[in-house]
Hints:
It is a single chain. By secondary structure, the protein is an all-alpha fold. It has 2 helices and no strands. Helix 1 crosses helix 2.
Amino acid sequence: MMLKKWMDMIKSRNSSSHTYNEAIAAEIAQKIITQYFEAFFAFKIKMEQVEADLS
Length: 55
């Protein structure tokens, strides 16, 4: 499930970087709020755990 979100983020980035379409931008902004933020937050927590384990 999380891998799918990361792959979707890559697709969103590619969609938004090659052309500007307001509808696509709005869709991606909504995904950032509702889906991608959660994935980045989980990544942050995991990296903090890794850092603590290495300390």
